[in-house]
Amino acid sequence: MAVTDETESRDSLVAYARESFDFLATHAGRAPKVDDGNLGTTLVYVVGSITVEVDFDWRDRVFMVLLCRTVNGRRPPGYYMHEGRRVRTILDLALADSPDPRHQAVAARLYSTVRQTGTKAMRPLIDLYATELRAIVDRCSRHH
Predict the structure, then answer these.
(1) Helix or strand or coil: residue 34?
(2) What pTM does this model have?
(3) Theoretical Cys-Cys bridge with 82: which of 1, 32, 87, 102, CB 3.0 to 4.6 Å?
(4) C-alpha to C-alpha distance for 3 and 47, rounded to whole angstroms
């Protein structure tokens, strides 16, 4: 069945992302906070000192995942900077800057896919980001 209603498309994509990133809710111990607006929807997972934002930009029809520093047990205020410190970075960039070759390989996979835009590209992006982030979280969990 073709999706003809943009709201239905948004709802189904957000539901799919919630399901795909459910492992973060498990680590956080609670469901994500959902910030929903006309221009975008963000699923916010506060997991200790790190906050993960799963972000849909409906205007530009792009999907991304941001890693954030948790500030006072909450999602950081501002956008990329807070009190002179960087508090957010796009997952792809964080991985590309890592000295770990495994992280750099993940960044290369994400870069090759992230060039795609539009709601049709979002589902494959959700799959890729969720798979890669789950592997990183699992690897970190084993080492701590």
Answers:
(1) strand
(2) 0.84
(3) 87
(4) 34
